[in-house]
Amino acid sequence: MAENIDSASLSETYLQISPNILASFPKFRPPVDLYFYDPDVARTGRFHRAGERLSREGQDEVARFAEEGRLYLLRDDYRVYAEHLSRELGLLLVEEGFLPLEVAEIFFIAFRNRMNEFLNRPTEDTYEALCKDVSILAEYIWIDPSRVDFLTHTLEREYDLSVHSVNTMFIGLALHLRRTGGLVEKAGLVSLGLGLLLHDLGMVMVPKFIRDKEQYLVRRDRESLERHIEAGLNMLRRLKIRDQVILDCAEQHHERLDGSGYPARRFDKDISAAGRLCAVADSFSAIIGDRPHRSARDMAEAVRMLTDDGRRYDSELTALLAGIMAERVTE
Fold this sequence. Notes:
Helix content is 55%, strand content 6%. The two termini are 35 Å apart. Helix 5 (100-120) runs antiparallel to helix 6 (124-143), helix 5 (100-120) packs across helix 8 (161-180) and helix 9 packs parallel to helix 13 (244-252). It has helices at 7-13, 19-23, 56-67, 78-85, 100-120, 124-143, 148-151, 161-180, 186-198, 208-211, 219-226, 228-238, 244-252, 273-288, 299-307, 315-330, and strands spanning 2-4, 14-16, 34-38, 43-48, 71-74. The chain has a five-stranded antiparallel sheet with strand order 1-4-3-5-2. It is built from 16 helices and five strands.
């Protein structure tokens, strides 16, 4: 297959594959169709079909195309290569060909997978891997804070602790960047990102039959559910995590301004800035996510529920959330 194509159409239809991106693919069986560009005739042609085996000669030729800047893949295939690039997030800081929404999708996949690994085996090495990825995300949005808005376009509604954690982080970071006008430090973004990701860590200790109950929870079940706060803090302590922002997110995301929350029934000023922010991000993510006892709510309805509940939630943050969601609709 070959086609005539100008440079503008080329960048809209195809993504250039650098040697670094090529190296992230399996060497013998690249997962996507590979195209090469012949500048002499301004034509692209398919060189390799996804999943087929490349000979050593073919690998050499593909590598040469990449070195010369003539190797491409279809942008429509980005969800396939996103799985591979999600393991090499550092490339997103140096490669310039990605669209912002493509980058956001890759970050979502990366953190969903990384959180699954961490929740299945919450050890120091899986935590360090998580820290590394959060540091890359922090660098990415610190360079250009407007990029955080694209993260909010990737939210998913699946009933899954990893998905909920990533949704909460993306919404929480967007709220933080709006609240601060983008005037943030990278180290602060890392701490907040980790706090938002790990806020519900203790839920892994709640019996599955309680988490998955479709009917109303009796008092005994609710008490078991509420103990996920202390369980999460204990897990963080075992990992020797002492960052106060991370601890505040884990401890205070169910506290409410009117004292109706748990576990300490804190009031207003006794709730930290990180705790207030995590409360809004966590509640919004919970409302828009599918649950065993109810289906996902519309995002606009979720915003209304939180903005109308000014006694329990920080009104400045819920107003910022309304603005973020309104912009998603108009874009």
